[in-house]
Design brief:
CBS-domain, alpha+beta, two-stranded antiparallel sheet, about 40% helix, about 20% strand, two-stranded antiparallel ribbon
């Protein structure tokens, strides 16, 4: 099975100039923990709820005045829609992320999440292995 078969294709993006307050509201509305940052229809970053809290609010910054570009991650690891889901799970574990942008011809076309893999019975083991790899890299 390919990533295309499991990915979410209705993905909202924000721009580098979007305030973190707006990003947080969008996350709450869509019930997601990360949002791609796009410029000229290309993904340039990813902002997570953790980025907002750890890099911004915990340091005393006001989310109304904070811009996405100052807190987003720019070292994006992505997959193509024809990537095998086993490879996507391995990549998630390797780079310790729960979501991967799906990019085709330089354009963001979706997101595949660890939860997407876990919903398919035949990929529960891969999802578990990816989560184990991700968890090993998390330091509390």
């Amino acid at each position: 099975m390919k990533v295309f078969d499991l990915m979410t294709d209705q993905v909202e993006c924000v721009t580098p100039e979007t305030s973190l307050e707006s990003v947080a509201k969008l996350m709450a509305k869509d019930d997601v923990g990360s949002i791609p940052v796009c410029q000229d229809n290309k993904i340039v970053g990813l902002i997570t709820d953790r980025d907002i809290v750890i890099r911004g609010i915990a340091k005393g910054h006001n989310p109304v005045n904070m811009k996405t570009k100052d807190y987003m991650s720019t070292d994006i690891v992505s997959v193509s829609p024809d990537t095998d889901v086993h490879e996507a799970a391995r990549k998630m574990a390797q780079v310790q992320v729960k979501r991967l942008p799906v990019v085709s011809n330089g354009q963001l076309i979706g997101i595949v999440a660890l939860g997407d893999l876990a919903t398919e019975k035949m990929y529960v083991d891969e999802a578990g292995e990816a989560l184990s790899g991700i968890s090993q890299g998390i330091q509390h």
